[in-house]
Amino acid sequence: MSSSEMKIVTVIGSGLIGRSWAMVFVSGGFRVKLYDNQPGHAAKAIAEMRKQLEELEDAHMLRGELTAMQQLALLSSHDDLSQALEGSFFVQECVFEQLEVKQCVFQDVEQLVGTDVILSSSTSCLVPSSVFSKVQNKSRCLVSHPVNPPYYVKLVELVPHPETAGAVIDTTHAIMTKVGQAPIRLKKEIDGFALNRVQAAIIAESWRLVQDGIISVKDIDLVMSEGLGMRYAFIGPMETMHLNAPKGLEDYMKNYGENIMRVLASFGPIPDFFGEGAKSIINEMCESIPSDQHHLSDRRERRDQLLMGLAKLKKDH
Fold first, then answer.
1. What domains can be seen in the chain, in order of their start residue?
2. Does residue 99 contact residue 131 with C-beta atoms inside 8 Å?
3. Where in the numbering of this chain does the 3-hydroxyacyl-CoA dehydrogenase C-terminal domain appear (predicted)?
4. Do the bridges between strand 31-35 and strand 75-78 make them parallel or antiparallel, or are there none, so unpaired?
5. Contact at 8 Å (CB) between 95 and 105?
6. Is the peptide bond before 146 cis (omega within 30 degrees of 0)?
7. What residues pair up with 78 in beta bridges, in sequence order?
8. Residue 193 region, left (φ>0) first, then alpha (ψ -120 to 50), else beta?
9. Do residues 120 and 94 make contact, with C-beta atoms less than 8 angstroms apart?
10. How does DSSP classify residue 35?
11. Number of helices and strands (H, E) in the chain?
């Protein structure tokens, strides 16, 4: 496919992830056709994006080289799927996390696009072999899993279907790089992908430590935000270990490997996230940040502002 043909991206679903993807793609100069099967929802989403892009421009945090007005000119809303797919070379699905719904979406899409159009899902926990099980040509299918919110957190996990062509992964990696994301390649599919498997391990041990009366909800969050997270915002766990020993990673494991194994052996079973013990953890969290929409919206806005500042710091370094 020539570069002249790689101009239009279709985003299916106009919720939070769909809007974020649309903003990411237009920041890289792609035309984006935003589709939603609920009439008027895509148009309403673009109105919301207009406000966001203008605010980002005012804050000097707008991504890409185009102005907010130029990026908005690349957006169009659609209530008709065939119209939304016309001329597209890449489809990013962002509907809610139900397997049957995603399968139906891709069945419908496949009937309306050429054989070389890449079909990508934003799913966070459904493996490609399930999502694309009803697609005939699976070689052009993959998961492109973003981190919420994608506009501020750049990682994208590219997860292949067992039949995905290598060129499809390469092309998607190039697209994600062009729009300023940080794509990573998984060599094969696995439940939870990479990010959520690591996150699940952190969640489980954090939950256990609170549930067993070792530490408070507030303090376990500080372990990450003022401790591990400070390093992990710039370097990962492998490089952290490599730098934390005089002679690198092999030296680190000689010094600390047995201690790590001892601690790992002391980990308990998977915690109960739903029983009576969970209620006290949830209550403790809600004492700090009440779960009503006002407080949650304020904290999400604060999160996004902090992530924006961190993204700028990382870019400048």
1. 3-185 (3.40.50.720), 195-316 (1.10.1040.10)
2. yes
3. 192-261
4. parallel
5. yes
6. no
7. 35
8. left
9. no
10. E
11. 14, 8
The Cβ-side half-sphere exposure at 223, using a 13 Å CA radius, reads 15
Classified as helix, coil or strand, 176 is helix
How far apart are alpha carbons 74 and 85 in whole angstroms?
15
Q: What are the tokens at 105?
A: 């979406």
Predicted TM-score (pTM) above 0.85: yes
Q: List the pLDDT tens digit at each of the 317 positions of the chain.
A: 545 466 999 999 999 999 999 999 999 999 999 999 999 999 999 999 999 999 999 988 899 999 999 999 999 999 999 999 999 999 999 999 999 999 999 999 999 999 999 999 999 989 999 999 999 999 999 999 999 889 999 999 999 999 999 999 999 999 999 999 999 999 999 999 999 999 999 999 999 999 999 999 999 999 999 999 999 999 999 999 999 999 999 999 999 999 999 999 999 999 999 998 899 999 999 999 999 999 999 999 999 889 988 988 888 87
Pairwise CA distance, residues 187 & 164, whole Å? 11
Task: Report the C-alpha gap between 78 and 45 in whole angstroms.
Answer: 11
List all residues 6 or more positions away from 259 whose beta carbon is below 8 Å from its beta carbon.
none
Written as six digits, the tokens of 230 are 């400070």
What is the distance in angstroms between the CA of the first residue and the CA of the last residue of the chain?
Answer: 35
